[in-house]
Design a protein that fits this description.
Elements: E1 3-4, E2 9-11, E3 17-22, E4 25-31, H1 37-49, E5 56-61, E6 85-89, E7 112-115, E8 121-125, E9 137-142, H2 147-153, E10 158-163, E11 166-171
Length: 173
């Protein structure tokens, strides 16, 4: 089944870290206000709602044989698919999403949390993606201890679909 972020986003004890509660466990994310202040402000607005109805993960692709367990790309391997990522939306039902501006941090590494375009679609990277260069705004990073939860989510039951000629793995409802 897909992973809802319900009961939603919640603050964790340490300042600057938020939790995405999923059926697989809570992913703690260190926000990066110096890199992406507008994106972090949006996250804080979500915290004030105490619920993120509509927020969910819907795509999950493991590392396959293209990246090692540390997230390093395997020499001479393709860069995907699979693309070693979790993808979801942070659009709250009934709340208009304000597009996020492109902000400072853009290097996607293992654990990076980044907007796809101007949002509300986002990704969590399971590998280093230097090949993506400046395509994304990174606004957070999953704490290293919680990457096992993200890896587990990438293995949840899924079906495949084709988006713009690329095979993707979609979480089952």
């Amino acid at each position: 089944c897909h992973v809802d972020l319900r009961p939603g986003l919640r603050e964790i004890i340490t300042e600057g870290i938020v939790g995405l509660e999923t059926s697989a466990g809570t992913l703690r994310i260190q926000l990066l206000p110096d890199c992406a202040p507008h994106s972090v402000d949006y996250f804080i607005e979500l915290l004030r709602l105490h619920n993120c109805a509509g927020c969910r993960f819907y795509r999950a692709e493991g590392r396959g044989h293209l990246w090692d367990a540390k997230g390093d790309h395997v020499k001479n391997a393709a860069f995907g698919p699979p693309y070693a990522l979790l993808q979801g939306t942070l659009e709250v039902d009934g709340v208009a999403f304000k597009e996020m501006p492109k902000e400072g941090c853009s290097t996607v590494r293992r654990g990076s949390v980044a907007w796809i375009g101007s949002g509300p679609e986002f990704l969590i990277s399971l590998a280093d993606h230097a090949e993506w260069r400046d395509a994304y705004t990174v606004f957070g990073s999953v704490v290293p201890e919680d990457m096992a939860i993200a890896e587990e989510m990438s293995m949840l039951p899924a079906s495949t679909d084709v988006w713009s000629g690329v095979t993707v793995r979609l979480l089952k409802d």
